[in-house]
Write a structure and sequence with these properties.
The protein is of the alpha/beta class and 540 residues long. The protein has helices at residues 8-11, 15-33, 35-57, 60-79, 83-98, 112-125, 175-189, 281-292, 325-352, 358-361, 371-381, 391-400, 418-423, 435-442, 486-495, 504-507, and strands at 149-155, 158-165, 194-200, 205-211, 229-234, 244-248, 251-255, 257-261, 271-275, 297-302, 318-322, 364-369, 402-409, 426-430, 458-463, 469-472. The strands form 4 sheets. The protein has an 8-stranded mixed sheet, with helices on both faces. β3 (194-200) and β4 form a beta hairpin. The longest helix is centred in the middle third of the chain and has 28 residues, at 325-352. The termini are far apart. Residues 502-513 have a biased composition (Low complexity). It comes from Actinacidiphila polyblastidii. Residues 502-540 are annotated as: Disordered.
Length: 540
């Protein structure tokens, strides 16, 4: 078989490319030759701009004397021997001076103080990242940080970013080894800030980044979400791949949300929120309930009995708000039978090839706050544990379009029913706590250090097997609380269905003061609402 030569268009360089290269070379050469002319022209342009600015700043009554003085100087220069030539030379010299490239080269390398801090950090890492017998140690007592620290950045004299390499024999696959290095970096880089550590075990390097504080000025509002999506709070922009517009401080900006998805296609249809007292778990459940009312029905059981959900009582879509043992047990029993009814309806619709009924497609939310308090009351009175009534909604809620959100305090987690712990794969932990406690709740340690100042609603979230995310719950206070600011009270009341929001000054007036109790709508539970006997349920 005879080989044919390649076409000339493939073997030879096109003439167009050669012409472009020649033109580029000619332009570069002309730029080098004409560089003095370009510099003088740039200087004359700057001189003209300065003269125009000076003329604009000069008052009108002084412009004529200035022109006369300039004309007199020009006449003197013309009458002097070699005056015009000297004037042109001086003008060109000043233009060349003003047209020079005045770009100050950026300083390379750290300052003396920054170099001292980097060397101190390097020496502190030597005992952790070196072993005896290493022929070419990356970390040595008499070594320098230049080889180990690939990138670094300082802000206001403090380390804000550090990219360091470590030897391949370092046990980066062990959590204890990584934790020791993270604690050291946290201490040496400066406490009082949050840091994120990104480990790359494949290439043997770790990156330390200072995280900005999460925003605490976002209040409850309508979010741009699809049905079945609930915004738990907001996190870092690098942690999620979407943003939602939020209104804060009279302006609208984009914020990265932590979105919890429920429904038949969700892998984590139920949520468990744990926290210390006054850490924001009730605020989180109140925010979830307000968002759930946009597309579904809500059942609220308040085990604490503090009346934190009284603002939801009697609202359209709110089927019940219960805080007593008998009412809570009856409500949860109804929820269990309602889940069974929905399962039967879904099964019949699939077998007959018909669409699922509308009342089954409408989501049902069971919001349960402090269930262990109800369990303790039931144990004292010899009644069944109300948590056992959550077995059916938790196990079969995804198919029946039933979502359960439970909040409890950390000191009462041992009293939670096993089915609650097993079926709630979306987890939130709020309040100040160490990484080991966060790992005990979420199943994985956070990649960030604990916050020095923990406001209400601040914590971590993990949805299923996803990463651990920082979380700040939007401010959703009880609007009937006397200490609630007027703006936040108006924001919450505006989200309630069927609510007429009074003006902010009226909310902050005497009606909300300590001399007068706010008007609260009574909770009505009848056969036409939620609590129905088993005989009234038409499951067939």
């Amino acid at each position: 078989m005879v080989r044919r030569p390649l076409p000339s268009i493939l073997s030879a360089r096109p003439a167009l490319v050669r012409g472009r290269d020649m033109a580029r070379s000619a332009a570069d050469g002309a730029t080098d030759v004409l560089h003095p002319v370009i510099t003088i022209a740039r200087g004359m342009r700057r001189q003209a701009a300065w003269a125009a600015g000076w003329w604009g700043r000069t008052p009108k009554d002084r412009r004529m004397p200035a022109l006369l003085l300039a004309a007199a100087g020009l006449v003197i220069v013309v009458m002097m021997p070699y005056g015009p030539i000297l004037a042109v030379v001086a003008l060109m010299a000043s233009a060349a001076w003003m047209g020079r490239d005045r770009a100050v080269p950026a300083p390379t390398g750290p300052t003396e103080a920054e170099a001292v801090r980097l060397q101190s950090l390097y020496e502190a890492l030597v005992p952790y990242l070196s072993v005896d017998g290493d022929p070419a140690p990356l970390y040595a007592p008499d070594g320098s940080w230049d080889r180990a620290f690939a990138e670094y950045a300082f802000a206001n004299g403090r380390l804000s970013r550090l990219h360091l390499r470590y030897p391949a024999y370092f046990t980066d696959g062990e959590a204890d080894s990584r934790e020791r290095v993270e604690q050291l970096l946290h201490a040496k880089a400066g406490r009082g800030r949050e840091y994120r550590f990104d480990w790359n075990e494949e290439e043997n390097h770790v990156t330390l980044t200072v995280l900005p504080p999460l925003p605490t000025d976002i209040v409850a509002q309508r979010y741009v979400t699809a049905p079945g999506e609930t915004v738990l709070g907001f996190t870092d922009a690098e942690a999620v791949q979407r943003t939602v517009p939020v209104a804060s401080g009279g302006e609208t900006r984009d914020a990265p949300p932590v979105v919890w998805r429920t429904g038949a296609r969700s892998s984590e249809p139920h949520l468990l929120a744990l926290g210390q007292p006054r850490s924001g778990t009730t605020t989180l459940l109140r925010s979830i309930a307000l968002q759930a009312l946009q597309h579904g029905d809500v059942v609220v059981v308040d085990g604490s009995g503090a009346g934190e959900y009284a603002c939801l009582a009697g609202r359209p879509g709110v089927l019940a708000v219960e805080d007593g043992l008998l009412g809570a047990a009856a409500t949860l029993e109804w929820a269990a039978h309602e889940t069974e009814r929905r399962l039967i309806a879904v099964n019949r619709a699939r077998q007959s090839g018909n669409p699922v009924p509308e009342d089954v497609r409408r989501p049902l939310w069971i919001v349960l706050d402090r269930p262990t308090a109800l369990s303790q009351l039931a144990l004292a009175e010899g009644r069944p544990d109300p948590q056992s009534l959550l077995d059916v909604p938790l196990r079969h809620g995804r198919t029946a379009n039933v979502a359960v959100a439970v909040a409890e305090q950390l000191d009462a987690t041992e009293s939670l029913a096993p089915v609650v712990i097993a079926q709630t794969r979306a987890r939130v932990v709020l309040g100040p706590m160490g990484p080991e406690h966060v790992a005990a709740v979420l199943g994985e340690r956070p990649r960030t250090t604990p916050a020095a100042d923990v406001p209400a609603g601040r914590g971590y979230a993990r949805l299923g097997s996803g990463p651990v995310l920082r979380l700040q719950v939007p401010a959703t206070p009880d609007p009937y609380d006397e200490e609630t600011p007027a703006a936040e009270r108006a924001a919450v009341l505006s989200l309630l269905p069927g609510a007429d929001v009074p003006p902010a000054d009226a909310l902050a007036g005497p009606a909300a003061g300590p001399d007068r109790e706010p008007d609260r709508e009574p909770v009505s539970l009848g056969k036409d609402t939620v609590v129905r006997t088993v005989a009234d349920l038409e499951l067939g």
